[in-house]
Amino acid sequence: MSRPTRAVIDLQALRHNYQLAQSLAPKSKTVPMVKANAYGHGAARVAEALSDLAPAFGVACIEEALELRDAGIKQPILLLEGGFDAAELQLAATKGFWVMVENHRQKDAVINADLALPLTVWLGVDTGMHRLGFQPDEIAEVYKTLNSSRNISQPIVFTSHFACADDLNSDATTKQIDSFKACAPVTALQSLANSAAILAWPKAQREWQRPGYMLYGNSPFSVPQENADQLKPVMSFESAVISLRNISAGESVGYTANWTAQGDSTIATITVGYGDGYPRHAPNGTPVLINGQRCPLVGRVSMDMITVDVTALSQVAIGDKAVLWGPELAVNEVAEHCGTIGYELLTRMPARVPRVYS
Ligand SMILES: Cc1ncc(COP(=O)(O)O)c(C=O)c1O
Questions:
Q1: 186, 249: one domain
Q2: 149: in domain
Q3: SS3 166
Q4: Ligand 1 pocket, mutate which of 14, 33, 332, 343 (most atoms under 8 A from CB)
Q5: Block means of pLDDT (10 residues each) for the chain, length 358 residues?
Q6: Can you tell me whether residue 224 is helix, strand or coil?
Q7: Same domain for 268 and 168?
Q8: SS3 state at 140
Q9: Are 301 and 169 in a shared domain?
Q10: Range of 305's domain?
Q11: pTM over 0.85
C-alpha cells in the first residue's frame, strides 16, 4: 500500500460551483480563474473539467497559460499580470492568450511590439485597490492610444479588481464600482466581479466575471451568506493513522514538546505534514477529522507527520481515515486556526500530494 496522503478532487462539485456562479449572473460570461495550479486543485484537470462550459480561463502568467495549452485547452487564456517582455507578447498573440494592460510600460510594449497577430487586451483601472491599473483620470487617453494601435484586436475589455468585496459591511466595493462607472465607457465590455462580488454584490455584474475561490467550493466570507452556502467543497485533503500510542499525564508530544497531556491520552500519528502543505504553524487544538470525528491536533506539525489526540474516540486503529479539510471540515476553519486564509492553504499544496480525481 502506498502512502495514503492525497487530495481527492470532486469535479462534479467544481462544475456545480461554476454553474452557481453562472446562474447568479446569467448575462455574464464566467471566466474561471485557474492560476496557482487552479488554487492547488490541478490546473489542467480543472480546466478540462470546465472546458465545455467556460469561454476562457484566467491565469497569473504565461507559464501557467502554456501548461493549459500543452494540456489541449483551446479557449483564450487571460494573463492577469500581462506580458513581462516583448517575447511573451509575441507568444501570447500566437497562442491566443489575452493580456492585461495595467501600466504605461505594458501599454507601450504592446503598441511597439512587432506582432504576427493582434492581441486581445483587458485594460486595468485602479479604482481603489492601488495594486495594479491606470488611474481613472488617465484611462480615456490610454484607451484612445490603444484603440489606434494595429496590435490590438477589438474590443478592449475594461476591468478592475475589488479590495474588500468579502467584507459585506464595507462601502469600499460601492466606491470602487462608482469610480469604475465614472471612467469606463458604457459601450465598452467590462469585467469587475471576483467570487465575493459574484456571490454578494449583484451591482458588480458586467459582461465578464472572474470567479476563483468559489469555484473550489469555499466561501470568501467569514460569515454565512446565502449564495455561498450553496457551494460544494471540491478538495478533500485526506490521510490516515499510521501509529497509535498511549501516553501518561505529564508526557509531551512532538518537536519542542509544546503540548503536554493533562491526563492519560491516546495519540494518533497521521502521515501528513508541512511537506504536504499542512501548515506548520497550525496550533494545538486545530481540528482534524479521524473517522469523521473532530479531534484536536496536539504537538508541532512535522515535515511528514502530525499528532492528534484521539482519547475521546471509542475506536481507532492504524489505517483509519484522517481528513485535514474537505466537505465536513472547511478549509476556512482550519485556516482561521492558523491565522491565514483558505486561499493560502489550497494554493500552497505541493506536488508531493497526489491529486486523485473523482
Ligand atoms: C484580477 C483577479 N480577478 C479575479 C480573481 C479571483 O478572485 P477570487 O479567488 O477571490 O474569486 C483574482 C484573484 O486573486 C484576481 O487577481
A1: no
A2: yes
A3: coil
A4: 33
A5: 94 99 98 98 98 98 98 98 96 98 98 96 98 97 97 96 98 98 96 98 98 98 98 98 98 98 98 98 98 98 98 98 98 98 98 98
A6: coil
A7: no
A8: helix
A9: no
A10: 235-357
A11: yes
